[in-house]
Amino acid sequence: MKEPVIYLKADQSVCYNKRTILIKDIANVYTASPEITHEVEKMKLFTFPDVKNGREIISMMKIVEEIKKRYKEAEIVNLGEPDVIVYYKRPEPIKKWIVSAKIGFVCLTAFFGAGISIMGYNNDIDVEKVFSQLYWMATGTKSDGPTILSFCYSIGLTIGIIVFFNHASKKRLSDEPTPFEVQMRLYEKDVNNTLITGAGRKEEEIDVDT
């Protein structure tokens, strides 16, 4: 029987609430034979200890090693990441009030943080003085308070924020990811790369012969 060509594709990180991790939990598997694909997917890699949360970094070489124990002459092609971070979180009942409190805290932090940043910027460039000068140039009289320019600036700032962050209530203005989502993905990628590099240097990675 001709040994199969086995294609693997893994993401950089995955999260599960089960302790026993199989190859199918780490990577997508494809071969020309559905039976072989199913058998490879069901191969066991490791089991998390009985703790609340855990994290392991596994090399794709370990998966290759496990597959080679069964299919010695198989050609294995990795189309994904060379290392995968596997997070384990023990299933626990979700407390809605805690989730709501976290969301509220993040919203308030973002709101007041953005407000202070905008006020700091307006104060640096002295927006009120600029608006007063423009008002005097247009009307020939000095303003003694907020002008139409101030109201238009406030409305334009609000519209600009909505368009920039690509959100209006629960609806998206387009299918593109928001700047927050882009930054969160970049941050997640940087964290994963740091963890993988650190595990490799400390030899804490699940690799061949471990």
Would you mind describing this structure in some detail?
It is a single chain. With 210 residues, this protein is an alpha/beta fold. The protein contains seven helices and ten strands. Strands 4-1-7 form a three-stranded mixed beta sheet.
Task: Please describe the structure with a list of short key phrases separated by commas or semicolons.
single chain; 7 helices; alpha/beta; 51% helix; 10 strands; three-stranded mixed beta sheet; 210 residues
Count of separate DSSP helical elements: 7
Q: How many beta-strand segments?
A: 10
Question: What would you call the structural class?
Answer: alpha/beta
How would a crystallographer describe the biggest sheet?
3 strands, mixed
Indicate the low-confidence ranges by residue numbers: none
Beta fraction: 15-25%
How far the N terminus sits from the C terminus, by CA atoms, comes to 30 Å
The neighbouring-strand order within the major sheet is: 4-1-7
The share of residues in helices is 40-55%
